[in-house]
Amino acid sequence: IIHASQDYMVYGPKAIKDRLVTESELQQINPNELVKYIQGLFTHKHSILYFGHSSVDEIKKMFNQTHLYKGELKVVPVSSNTYIEKTDESIVYVLPFEGDEASIRAVSVRDEMYDINKKVLIDLYNVYFGNLFFYEIREKRGMAYYASAFMYEPDRVADPYFYAVTTQTQADKLIPALDAAKNVIDNMPLSENDFESCKSNILRSNYEMFKYKRSSVLNYYLKMKEFGYDYDIESKLYPWTKELTLADIENYHKENIKNRKFNYFVICPTQFINEEALSKFGKIKYVTQKDIFGY
Q1: Predicted confidence band at 79 (pLDDT cuts at 50, 70, 90)?
Q2: Cross-strand bridge partners of residue 167
Q3: Cut 0.85: pTM above it
Q4: Helix, strand or coil, per DSSP, at residue 277
Q5: Most C-beta atoms within 10 A of its C-beta, which of 44, 102, 110, 254?
Q6: pLDDT digits over 207-248, tens only?
């Protein structure tokens, strides 16, 4: 449910509705039409990626024998719907749920598009603040079983970044956990030792010891192509990472995270839902599982 709640806040109820096919719609679909769609896939423009031991000549021969369509390829239709909804006002979505625990997902979407010049800064920020957020909420304050904070990188050039904070706690600690999370976000702890440790781990795990293996090379190539790069950007990212300082992390947090608007999704037993306390985080709106799943 917590993952579905994130989709609900990022993409909105229209996206939930559009991606589902009702039972009556399924009954009306002609199976032969679906077969035609599948058969027509290779009549549209497409790319073929291969990972394996065969030579280029062997691959060409294989495709010349099996990839038989020789007509003019059609342009793949592109949907004009991005669905992503910006966080213009703070709303607290509440889903009453039986149990002893409460789950909170806070999401914030702004017009922050992919920027290669910020990639290493965001990567390092995610590790530094993510670790501190977990420590402050779970270990130091005892307010949650689990706590995370992360700036998600888009998969498409047309989509923005989005920031998500997750807290799972005891139901009777719902409000204190929300207060604690907001306090840590508004007042990020600074530690030079923790920063240097995170930086060393990033350099080692993301660059010095990391390798794209097997088909992951192709996925990496496709992602870079999506964002307009026809070369391996890792060669630039490594020295950029080495130059980052704790002040860079602090400035990024102040300019991009602190005091930003969030939508909240709260899953909690009814008896622990305090509307007055929740209302200070945003306008309260009750939802059902059908709202977020579409069925």
Answers
A1: confident
A2: 104, 147
A3: yes
A4: helix
A5: 102
A6: 888 788 888 888 888 888 898 888 888 888 989 999 999 999
Q: What is the dihedral of CA 200, 254, 147, 5, to 10 degrees?
A: -120
User: Which two structure tokens, joined as six digits, stand for 45?
Assistant: 């423009």
Nearest residue to 143 (alpha-carbon basis) of 106, 190, 98, 101: 101
Type of residue numbered 258: K
What DSSP element (H or E) covers 183?
Answer: helix 174-186
How far apart CA 181 and CA 133 sit, in angstroms, is 8
The 3-state secondary structure of 190-257 reads CCHHHHHHHHHHHHHHHHHCCCCCCCHHHHHHHHHHHCCCCCCCHHHHHHHHHHCCHHHHHHHHHHHC
Q: Which residues contact 230 (CB under 8 A, 6 or more apart)?
A: 224
Torsion 134-89-255-239 (CA) sign: positive
